[in-house]
Specification:
This protein is an alpha/beta fold. It has a single domain, classed as Rossmann fold (3-Layer(aba) Sandwich), CATH 3.40.50.1820. Helix content is 37%, strand content 13%. It has a six-stranded parallel β-sheet with strand order 2-1-3-4-5-6, sandwiched between helices. Helix 6 links the parallel strand 3 and strand 4. Helix 6 packs across helix 8.
């Protein structure tokens, strides 16, 4: 069994971080073996916007979007190229919100947001700020509920986004993202994640939000069969699509 963080404030142990690439490679192998998508509930045509993690683009979510399309959902990429944090979406998340507004106007329905890692934090911020546009939020290994220092990626975050984790703006966004959402929320997380502390990828015990624990590393977690099946089941358990303004 892999070592895990002792508390919510600790980053993942070095061994877990060192095993990220071997675990990611095994994820790709398992994805290619097939057979894992049988028995999943059919989709109902609702719009689903999938958001990539730090430094990643829509290409990183091809397997998730392909599954959603196959099940019968209208799956969208965010269309904003690579995710460099505020450099990409703007200081107030405005470019992401504009994308959600566009899909909302096109479909006449509230949009389900699925965010991977940093993309999940952005999804939660969008849901707080424009809940009338958002149906529900699903986060995948997104460290929204704790300090950036409880991750092994805060230095790359600073390098790629140009922000500093001690900045007041960063702290304010994290505080906002951690608050309970005004829409249904599900957090898919892993205790053995090697890059972010899995305990801060979910709301606290007693929350109304659903938390689904999987056994996974961080790299390519959105391609892991357990993750894909969990997303499909969460969507399948939802009620009929919520129309615009409802």
């Amino acid at each position: 069994m892999l070592p895990v963080p002792r508390t919510r404030d600790d980053p993942p142990p070095r061994l877990a971080m060192a095993l990220e690439w071997p675990r990611a490679a095994w994820t790709i192998v398992r994805l290619g073996l097939g057979g894992w998508a049988s028995g999943l509930p059919a989709g109902d045509g609702r719009p689903v916007l999938v958001l990539p993690g730090l430094f990643n683009s829509d290409r990183s979510n091809f397997a998730l979007r392909a599954l959603l399309h196959k099940l019968g959902y209208r799956a969208y990429g965010w269309g904003l190229q690579r995710n460099f944090g505020v450099r990409t979406v703007g200081a107030d998340n405005e470019r992401l919100i504009a994308r959600i507004e566009e899909i909302h106007a096109e479909t006449g329905e509230k949009v389900t947001l699925i965010g991977v890692s940093l993309g999940g934090i952005m999804a939660r911020l969008a849901a707080h700020r424009r809940p009338e546009l958002v149906r529900e939020v699903i986060t995948i290994s997104s460290p929204f509920a704790g300090p950036p220092t409880a991750t092994n990626v805060w230095r790359p975050f600073e390098l790629l986004t140009g922000e500093r984790i001690g900045d007041a703006a960063v702290a304010a966004r994290l505080e906002e993202a951690a608050r309970p959402l005004p829409v249904p929320a599900t957090a898919i997380w892993s205790r053995s994640d090697g890059l972010v502390n899995g305990l801060i990828c979910r709301e606290e015990e007693g929350s109304d939000a659903r938390a689904i624990e999987i056994h996974s590393g961080h790299l390519f977690v959105q391609m892991k069969p357990e993750t894909l099946r969990a997303v499909a089941k969460v969507l399948g358990n939802s009620s009929s699509p919520a129309k615009a303004g409802v």
